[in-house]
Amino acid sequence: MISRRSFMGLVAGTAVATLAACGDDKDNDKGTASGGTAKVTFGYIGDYNGSSLPAIANKLKLWEKHGLEATLKVFTTGPVQIQAMQTGDLDFGYIGPGAFWLPASGQAKIIAINTLGGADRVIAQPGITSIEQLRGKKVGVPEGTSGDMILTLALQAAGMTNKDIQRTPMDAATLASAFSAKQIDGAGFWYPAIATIKKSVPNLVEIANDDTFKDKVQFPNAYVAGNKAVNEKPDVVKKVVQVLREATDYRAAHRDEVIAAVAELTKQPADAVKADADLNKAMTTQELDAQTTDGTVGKWLDAMGEFFLSAGKLKEKADPKSYYLGEQWTAAK
Fold first, then answer.
1. Distance (Å, rounded) from C-alpha 43 to C-alpha 226?
2. d(CA 141, CA 177)
3. Model-level pTM?
4. How far is it, in rounded angstroms, from Cα 219 to Cα 4?
5. Relative orientation angle of helices 234-253 and 255-266, to the nearest 10 degrees
6. Alpha-carbon distance values, 244 to 119, 199, 202, 247, 271 (Å)
7. pLDDT, tens digit, for every residue of 126-178?
8. Which of 104, 86, 80 lies closest to 228, judged by CA?
9. Chain segment 242-278, per-residue pLDDT in tens
10. Burial (CB count within 10 angstroms: exposed 0-12, middle 13-18, buried 19+), residue 177
Protein backbone atom coordinates (compact mmCIF):
# COMPACT_ATOMS: atom_id res chain seq x y z
CA MET A 1 0.00 0.00 0.00
CA ILE A 2 1.23 3.47 -0.62
CA SER A 3 2.63 4.77 2.58
CA ARG A 4 1.97 5.69 5.59
CA ARG A 5 0.67 2.13 4.99
CA SER A 6 1.97 2.40 1.48
CA PHE A 7 2.91 -0.95 -0.06
CA MET A 8 -0.45 -1.95 -1.50
CA GLY A 9 -1.08 1.48 -2.91
CA LEU A 10 1.78 0.96 -5.32
CA VAL A 11 -0.39 -1.73 -6.84
CA ALA A 12 -3.20 0.80 -6.98
CA GLY A 13 -0.67 3.05 -8.69
CA THR A 14 -2.53 5.42 -10.90
CA ALA A 15 -5.97 4.34 -9.73
CA VAL A 16 -6.74 7.91 -8.78
CA ALA A 17 -10.35 9.00 -8.49
CA THR A 18 -10.68 12.31 -10.26
CA LEU A 19 -13.86 14.31 -10.07
CA ALA A 20 -12.53 17.25 -12.08
CA ALA A 21 -9.25 18.59 -13.35
CA CYS A 22 -7.71 21.09 -11.00
CA GLY A 23 -7.71 24.69 -12.17
CA ASP A 24 -5.15 27.31 -11.29
CA ASP A 25 -5.45 29.59 -8.27
CA LYS A 26 -7.07 32.34 -10.30
CA ASP A 27 -9.84 30.01 -11.42
CA ASN A 28 -10.28 28.68 -7.89
CA ASP A 29 -10.59 32.15 -6.41
CA LYS A 30 -13.03 33.24 -9.11
CA GLY A 31 -15.31 30.29 -8.55
CA THR A 32 -15.37 30.77 -4.79
CA ALA A 33 -15.89 34.53 -4.89
CA SER A 34 -18.82 34.18 -7.28
CA GLY A 35 -20.49 31.51 -5.19
CA GLY A 36 -19.66 28.89 -7.82
CA THR A 37 -17.64 25.71 -7.59
CA ALA A 38 -14.12 25.81 -6.15
CA LYS A 39 -11.50 23.42 -7.56
CA VAL A 40 -9.16 21.69 -5.13
CA THR A 41 -6.47 19.02 -5.25
CA PHE A 42 -6.76 16.49 -2.43
CA GLY A 43 -4.04 14.00 -1.54
CA TYR A 44 -4.53 10.64 0.08
CA ILE A 45 -2.66 7.45 0.91
CA GLY A 46 -3.97 4.15 -0.39
CA ASP A 47 -4.91 2.53 2.93
CA TYR A 48 -8.12 2.55 4.96
CA ASN A 49 -7.13 5.51 7.12
CA GLY A 50 -5.87 7.65 4.30
CA SER A 51 -8.55 6.93 1.71
CA SER A 52 -11.79 6.23 3.59
CA LEU A 53 -13.05 9.82 3.82
CA PRO A 54 -12.27 10.79 0.21
CA ALA A 55 -13.76 7.47 -0.93
CA ILE A 56 -16.97 8.34 0.94
CA ALA A 57 -16.94 11.86 -0.51
CA ASN A 58 -16.80 10.29 -3.97
CA LYS A 59 -19.53 7.76 -3.22
CA LEU A 60 -21.96 10.29 -1.75
CA LYS A 61 -20.96 13.17 -4.07
CA LEU A 62 -20.13 15.30 -1.04
CA TRP A 63 -17.66 17.40 -3.01
CA GLU A 64 -20.43 18.62 -5.30
CA LYS A 65 -22.84 19.05 -2.41
CA HIS A 66 -20.46 21.50 -0.73
CA GLY A 67 -19.51 23.39 -3.88
CA LEU A 68 -16.21 21.70 -4.68
CA GLU A 69 -14.58 19.94 -7.60
CA ALA A 70 -11.86 17.70 -6.21
CA THR A 71 -8.99 16.02 -7.98
CA LEU A 72 -7.75 13.15 -5.83
CA LYS A 73 -4.06 12.28 -5.99
CA VAL A 74 -2.50 9.21 -4.38
CA PHE A 75 0.85 9.70 -2.63
CA THR A 76 3.50 7.53 -1.04
CA THR A 77 3.83 9.38 2.30
CA GLY A 78 2.50 12.31 4.28
CA PRO A 79 5.77 14.28 4.03
CA VAL A 80 5.64 14.06 0.22
CA GLN A 81 2.17 15.60 0.30
CA ILE A 82 3.28 18.48 2.48
CA GLN A 83 6.16 19.09 0.07
CA ALA A 84 3.60 19.22 -2.74
CA MET A 85 1.59 21.79 -0.78
CA GLN A 86 4.65 23.97 -0.42
CA THR A 87 5.27 23.92 -4.18
CA GLY A 88 1.61 24.69 -4.94
CA ASP A 89 0.86 21.27 -6.42
CA LEU A 90 -1.58 20.21 -3.69
CA ASP A 91 -4.15 21.97 -1.53
CA PHE A 92 -5.13 19.30 1.01
CA GLY A 93 -3.80 15.90 2.04
CA TYR A 94 -3.44 13.16 4.61
CA ILE A 95 -0.66 12.38 7.07
CA GLY A 96 0.01 9.61 9.54
CA PRO A 97 1.27 10.32 13.06
CA GLY A 98 4.91 10.06 12.08
CA ALA A 99 4.53 13.22 9.98
CA PHE A 100 2.81 15.37 12.64
CA TRP A 101 6.10 17.14 13.30
CA LEU A 102 5.65 18.89 9.93
CA PRO A 103 2.52 20.86 10.88
CA ALA A 104 4.01 21.28 14.37
CA SER A 105 6.96 23.03 12.71
CA GLY A 106 4.66 25.33 10.75
CA GLN A 107 4.71 23.58 7.37
CA ALA A 108 0.96 22.86 7.19
CA LYS A 109 -2.19 22.95 9.29
CA ILE A 110 -4.21 20.02 10.64
CA ILE A 111 -7.85 20.53 9.68
CA ALA A 112 -9.31 17.21 10.86
CA ILE A 113 -8.25 14.42 13.19
CA ASN A 114 -9.14 11.22 11.37
CA THR A 115 -8.70 7.99 13.35
CA LEU A 116 -6.49 6.58 16.07
CA GLY A 117 -4.09 4.18 14.42
CA GLY A 118 -3.23 0.72 15.66
CA ALA A 119 -1.52 -0.84 12.66
CA ASP A 120 2.13 0.03 13.30
CA ARG A 121 4.73 -2.54 14.25
CA VAL A 122 8.43 -3.10 14.76
CA ILE A 123 9.01 -6.40 13.01
CA ALA A 124 12.03 -8.66 12.89
CA GLN A 125 13.20 -11.78 11.12
CA PRO A 126 12.44 -15.12 12.82
CA GLY A 127 14.72 -15.71 15.81
CA ILE A 128 14.96 -12.04 16.80
CA THR A 129 12.62 -11.51 19.72
CA SER A 130 13.53 -8.10 21.17
CA ILE A 131 14.59 -4.65 20.10
CA GLU A 132 17.90 -5.23 21.90
CA GLN A 133 18.62 -8.12 19.54
CA LEU A 134 18.47 -5.69 16.63
CA ARG A 135 21.58 -3.95 17.98
CA GLY A 136 24.09 -3.62 15.15
CA LYS A 137 21.67 -5.09 12.63
CA LYS A 138 20.14 -3.59 9.49
CA VAL A 139 16.69 -2.08 10.15
CA GLY A 140 14.58 -0.56 7.39
CA VAL A 141 12.25 2.40 7.92
CA PRO A 142 10.28 4.80 5.72
CA GLU A 143 11.39 8.21 6.97
CA GLY A 144 8.82 10.55 8.49
CA THR A 145 6.12 7.89 8.79
CA SER A 146 4.46 6.05 11.65
CA GLY A 147 6.96 3.26 11.02
CA ASP A 148 9.71 5.76 11.84
CA MET A 149 7.79 6.83 14.93
CA ILE A 150 7.22 3.38 16.39
CA LEU A 151 10.81 2.28 15.70
CA THR A 152 12.14 5.35 17.52
CA LEU A 153 9.78 4.78 20.45
CA ALA A 154 10.88 1.15 20.72
CA LEU A 155 14.55 2.13 20.69
CA GLN A 156 13.98 4.78 23.35
CA ALA A 157 12.12 2.32 25.57
CA ALA A 158 15.12 -0.02 25.39
CA GLY A 159 17.59 2.76 26.16
CA MET A 160 18.87 2.66 22.60
CA THR A 161 19.18 5.16 19.75
CA ASN A 162 19.44 4.98 15.99
CA LYS A 163 23.21 4.77 16.42
CA ASP A 164 22.75 1.31 17.95
CA ILE A 165 21.29 -0.11 14.73
CA GLN A 166 22.08 0.10 11.05
CA ARG A 167 19.12 2.38 10.35
CA THR A 168 18.32 2.17 6.64
CA PRO A 169 15.80 4.62 5.12
CA MET A 170 13.64 2.93 2.49
CA ASP A 171 10.40 3.61 0.70
CA ALA A 172 7.62 1.21 1.66
CA ALA A 173 7.74 -1.00 -1.44
CA THR A 174 11.51 -1.41 -1.22
CA LEU A 175 11.28 -2.21 2.47
CA ALA A 176 8.66 -4.90 1.91
CA SER A 177 10.77 -6.53 -0.80
CA ALA A 178 13.96 -6.28 1.26
CA PHE A 179 12.40 -7.83 4.35
CA SER A 180 10.83 -10.64 2.32
CA ALA A 181 14.22 -11.35 0.77
CA LYS A 182 15.84 -11.24 4.24
CA GLN A 183 18.08 -8.37 3.17
CA ILE A 184 17.19 -6.48 6.35
CA ASP A 185 16.84 -7.82 9.88
CA GLY A 186 14.03 -5.63 11.11
CA ALA A 187 11.75 -2.74 10.21
CA GLY A 188 9.44 -0.05 11.49
CA PHE A 189 6.38 -0.72 9.36
CA TRP A 190 2.59 -1.26 9.36
CA TYR A 191 -0.36 -3.37 8.36
CA PRO A 192 -1.73 -4.25 5.83
CA ALA A 193 1.71 -4.23 4.18
CA ILE A 194 3.01 -6.56 6.92
CA ALA A 195 0.30 -9.06 5.99
CA THR A 196 1.75 -9.11 2.48
CA ILE A 197 5.25 -9.70 3.86
CA LYS A 198 3.94 -12.59 5.95
CA LYS A 199 3.20 -14.51 2.77
CA SER A 200 6.97 -14.76 2.30
CA VAL A 201 8.05 -14.65 5.94
CA PRO A 202 5.18 -16.26 7.89
CA ASN A 203 7.18 -16.50 11.13
CA LEU A 204 8.30 -12.88 11.31
CA VAL A 205 8.30 -11.50 14.85
CA GLU A 206 6.30 -8.48 15.99
CA ILE A 207 8.46 -6.82 18.64
CA ALA A 208 6.31 -3.74 19.35
CA ASN A 209 2.97 -2.24 18.33
CA ASP A 210 1.07 1.00 18.90
CA ASP A 211 -0.53 -0.30 22.09
CA THR A 212 2.94 -0.87 23.56
CA PHE A 213 3.24 2.92 23.93
CA LYS A 214 -0.37 3.98 24.55
CA ASP A 215 0.47 5.28 28.03
CA LYS A 216 3.05 7.62 26.50
CA VAL A 217 1.62 8.66 23.16
CA GLN A 218 -1.36 8.08 20.89
CA PHE A 219 -1.14 7.52 17.14
CA PRO A 220 -3.73 9.83 15.55
CA ASN A 221 -3.67 10.50 11.84
CA ALA A 222 -5.12 13.56 10.16
CA TYR A 223 -6.11 15.53 7.11
CA VAL A 224 -4.09 18.67 6.51
CA ALA A 225 -4.23 21.87 4.49
CA GLY A 226 -1.37 23.78 2.97
CA ASN A 227 -0.62 27.14 4.54
CA LYS A 228 -1.48 28.88 1.27
CA ALA A 229 -4.97 27.37 1.26
CA VAL A 230 -5.53 28.30 4.91
CA ASN A 231 -4.32 31.86 4.46
CA GLU A 232 -5.84 32.66 1.07
CA LYS A 233 -8.96 30.47 0.80
CA PRO A 234 -10.57 30.10 4.25
CA ASP A 235 -13.99 29.61 2.66
CA VAL A 236 -12.66 26.68 0.63
CA VAL A 237 -11.03 25.18 3.73
CA LYS A 238 -14.42 25.37 5.48
CA LYS A 239 -16.10 23.55 2.60
CA VAL A 240 -13.47 20.80 2.71
CA VAL A 241 -13.89 20.43 6.47
CA GLN A 242 -17.66 20.15 5.98
CA VAL A 243 -17.06 17.32 3.51
CA LEU A 244 -14.75 15.57 5.98
CA ARG A 245 -17.23 15.96 8.84
CA GLU A 246 -20.08 14.47 6.84
CA ALA A 247 -17.88 11.62 5.62
CA THR A 248 -16.65 10.97 9.18
CA ASP A 249 -20.15 10.29 10.47
CA TYR A 250 -21.06 8.18 7.45
CA ARG A 251 -17.97 6.04 8.06
CA ALA A 252 -18.98 5.46 11.68
CA ALA A 253 -22.48 4.32 10.67
CA HIS A 254 -21.82 2.38 7.45
CA ARG A 255 -18.73 0.28 7.95
CA ASP A 256 -19.36 -2.34 5.25
CA GLU A 257 -20.24 0.24 2.62
CA VAL A 258 -17.10 2.23 3.42
CA ILE A 259 -14.89 -0.85 3.18
CA ALA A 260 -16.36 -1.51 -0.26
CA ALA A 261 -15.80 2.12 -1.31
CA VAL A 262 -12.17 2.03 -0.16
CA ALA A 263 -11.61 -1.27 -1.95
CA GLU A 264 -12.95 0.30 -5.15
CA LEU A 265 -10.82 3.44 -4.84
CA THR A 266 -7.58 1.67 -3.91
CA LYS A 267 -8.11 -1.44 -6.08
CA GLN A 268 -7.66 -3.81 -3.13
CA PRO A 269 -9.62 -6.88 -2.03
CA ALA A 270 -12.37 -6.00 0.45
CA ASP A 271 -11.05 -8.50 3.00
CA ALA A 272 -7.67 -6.74 3.03
CA VAL A 273 -9.37 -3.38 3.57
CA LYS A 274 -11.47 -4.87 6.39
CA ALA A 275 -8.36 -6.23 8.10
CA ASP A 276 -6.81 -2.77 7.89
CA ALA A 277 -9.97 -1.11 9.24
CA ASP A 278 -10.06 -3.55 12.17
CA LEU A 279 -6.72 -2.21 13.43
CA ASN A 280 -7.82 1.42 13.70
CA LYS A 281 -10.33 3.34 15.80
CA ALA A 282 -12.77 5.52 13.88
CA MET A 283 -14.70 8.23 15.74
CA THR A 284 -17.82 10.31 15.14
CA THR A 285 -17.83 14.08 14.80
CA GLN A 286 -19.56 14.24 18.18
CA GLU A 287 -16.63 12.42 19.77
CA LEU A 288 -14.05 14.47 17.90
CA ASP A 289 -15.80 17.73 18.77
CA ALA A 290 -15.81 16.79 22.45
CA GLN A 291 -12.17 15.69 22.36
CA THR A 292 -11.25 18.94 20.66
CA THR A 293 -13.09 21.23 23.08
CA ASP A 294 -12.13 19.39 26.28
CA GLY A 295 -8.42 19.44 25.40
CA THR A 296 -7.99 15.72 24.70
CA VAL A 297 -6.66 16.30 21.18
CA GLY A 298 -4.37 18.99 22.53
CA LYS A 299 -2.94 16.48 25.01
CA TRP A 300 -2.34 13.99 22.19
CA LEU A 301 -0.51 16.65 20.20
CA ASP A 302 1.47 17.82 23.25
CA ALA A 303 2.67 14.27 23.90
CA MET A 304 3.61 13.87 20.26
CA GLY A 305 5.47 17.18 20.40
CA GLU A 306 7.52 15.90 23.33
CA PHE A 307 8.31 12.77 21.37
CA PHE A 308 9.39 14.69 18.27
CA LEU A 309 11.62 16.88 20.44
CA SER A 310 13.27 13.79 21.91
CA ALA A 311 13.64 12.28 18.44
CA GLY A 312 15.28 15.41 17.07
CA LYS A 313 12.47 16.19 14.60
CA LEU A 314 11.57 19.47 16.37
CA LYS A 315 13.85 22.12 17.81
CA GLU A 316 11.05 23.49 19.99
CA LYS A 317 7.55 22.33 20.81
CA ALA A 318 4.68 24.35 19.38
CA ASP A 319 1.29 25.09 20.94
CA PRO A 320 -1.15 22.64 19.29
CA LYS A 321 -3.56 25.53 18.73
CA SER A 322 -1.03 27.03 16.32
CA TYR A 323 -1.32 24.13 13.89
CA TYR A 324 -4.54 22.23 14.72
CA LEU A 325 -7.51 24.25 13.48
CA GLY A 326 -9.83 22.80 16.10
CA GLU A 327 -12.15 25.80 16.28
CA GLN A 328 -12.66 25.68 12.51
CA TRP A 329 -13.34 21.96 12.76
CA THR A 330 -16.07 22.28 15.39
CA ALA A 331 -17.59 25.35 13.71
CA ALA A 332 -17.98 23.74 10.27
CA LYS A 333 -21.29 22.03 11.02
1. 11
2. 13
3. 0.86
4. 12
5. 120
6. 22, 35, 38, 5, 25
7. 999 999 999 999 999 999 889 999 999 999 999 999 999 999 999 999 999 99
8. 86
9. 999 999 999 999 999 999 999 999 999 999 999 999 9
10. middle
